[in-house]
Amino acid sequence: MLTLHHAPNSRAGRIVWLLEELGLDYKLNRMEFSPKALKSDEHRARHPLGRVPVLEEDGTTLYESGAIVEYLVRRHSDGSLIPPHESSSFPEYLQWFHYCEGMVMPPINTIIVQTILLPPERRDNTVLGQAQRLLGKSLKPVNDALSNREYLIGSFSAADIMLGHSLYMSNRLDCVDETMDQIKRYIGNLEKRPAFQKGISA
Amino acid sequence: MLTLHHAPNSRAGRIVWLLEELGLDYKLNRMEFSPKALKSDEHRARHPLGRVPVLEEDGTTLYESGAIVEYLVRRHSDGSLIPPHESSSFPEYLQWFHYCEGMVMPPINTIIVQTILLPPERRDNTVLGQAQRLLGKSLKPVNDALSNREYLIGSFSAADIMLGHSLYMSNRLDCVDETMDQIKRYIGNLEKRPAFQKGISA
Fold it and tell me: What is the CATH number of the domain that holds A180?
């Protein structure tokens, strides 16, 4: 049995989305997005730093959303969300999958810390501004890549689960401006998917 | 022909290391780690934000070190650096592979910005201290996982190329203290590999 440890408005939404796309049975442990819940002894036994998502299956505990996505696709699906290794889509699939945590999530994390998590007196506008500018620069190549495409590599793939979710978060943080018209259109494509709706509302 | 665009003391060292581990022929374009080189029009045609590593092969251009590592192993080796999907090592392989960019590199990037890249008058000790504390916390689970192991999942794998290289960088930045004895020992294991030596000195 698959158990997903989850908190709303976090990266864990990606995994709910994927579980729903794959039509898998799973148990959802929905925690509050608060230090009390995430830093509890119970949850730190699953993830020493108290993060989500964490996936459990038959005594195996696994964290890092990118790892969980690949695990689920390789172990629990026909693999169709990952292009064959010899295909021409494979390199761009890999690039956009890894671009999520490599380029987009670091400034998003800083923006969330500086606008939501820190108390107002500890926020730093210089740090916030740097992160917002970096995120804008990081989104530009994705906007260009999405021209005339429904999804990142054309057809829907696990790269959309990763990078698509972080583009959705960027937009929620008001960091996708009107010049990023391809990203805006693409987020509309994601929002039409019932599994995505379940992921972001879980 | 494989061409790697590289700058010293960057993530690109991982890729030199892997190319050497796999015994592949490649051309190395060694650039200075400077805005002049990395933000040149020539390099920004390869990576819009002027980052390294970038890999080129037969008209395909690929960035993100995690993507390049998986591309090279899947396309240019017998795949032995990635455990079979059904093996018991596969989940922990994935976790440590992704932990590198998810948990370890974000604070390393901040530490490099705050101690090397920014001019002294623009550095911020609060930001630096937060990053150093986060890096310390992020390394702790890795130190625990390395107990009685030569490599991250036991035998050498592509997870060592990713996370091992970032542990080496953490140590270079004086962020691996004496309580992290397993990481210190592990870095010693990496340093015995001739391919690793080529990677970090390229």
Answer: 1.20.1050.10
Range of the domain at B108: 90-201
Residues of B with CB under 8 A from a CB of A: 48-49, 60, 62-68, 70-71, 74-75, 85-86, 90-92, 94-95, 97-99, 101-103, 105-106, 109, 124, 126-127, 137-138, 140-141, 144
Using DSSP's 3-state secondary structure scheme, residue B115 falls into: helix
**Residue A83, in any domain of the structure:** no
Q: What is the pTM of this model?
A: 0.97
What is the structure's pLDDT at A159? 98
Tell me which residue in B86, B102, B138 faces A101 most closely, judged by beta carbons. Answer: B102
B94 with A126: Cβ contact below 8 A: no
Low-confidence ranges of chain A (pLDDT < 70): none
For B27, left (φ over 0), alpha (ψ -120 to 50), or beta?
Answer: beta
Q: Sort out which chain A residues have CB atoms less than 8 A from B94's CB and list them.
A: 62, 64, 66-68, 70-71
Look at chain A and report how many structural domains it folds into: 2
Q: Is-contact B94 B163, C-beta < 8 A?
A: no
Per DSSP, B161 falls in state I
- End residue of a domain, out of A49, A76, A103: A76
Of the candidates B6, B5, B10, the one whose C-alpha atom is nearest the C-alpha of residue B116 is B10
Nearest to B5 by CA among B100, B40, B108: B40
pLDDT of residue B66: 98
Question: ipTM score here?
Answer: 0.96
Q: What is the pLDDT of residue A79?
A: 85
As a whole number, the mean pLDDT across chain B is: 96
Is the residue at A85 inside a domain? no
Q: For residue B24, give the CATH number of its domain.
A: 3.40.30.10
A60, A137: one domain: no
